[in-house]
Amino acid sequence: MMLTPVPSKPLLRSTLSVTTSKSLRIARIDFSSLELDESRYTKRGYNRTQQIGAALNYLGFDGLIAPSARWDCDNLIVFEDNRALD
What we know:
- It is a single chain.
- The chain has one helix at 47-58, and strands at 23-25, 63-67, 74-78.
- By secondary structure, the chain is α+β, with helices and mostly antiparallel strands.
- A hairpin with a 6-residue loop joins strand 2 and strand 3 (74-78).
- The chain is flat, with a radius of gyration of 15 Å.
């Protein structure tokens, strides 16, 4: 895996196991219907994405899977308030 920029400190890789029971997946194809500007998705200015996350949290979702703004992968965002402690 090539990292850009190259880290100045040693890289530590960890593996986590997480389960969610009520998650939503957002793909780049969904951006226009969510009023997300894909050309600005990698820039700072998180207002719209924070509004979407707050709405999902309020609706009781415990997770959101969304494209990373920096890497070619998806991120899992966990809403801890909506997860069981077990």
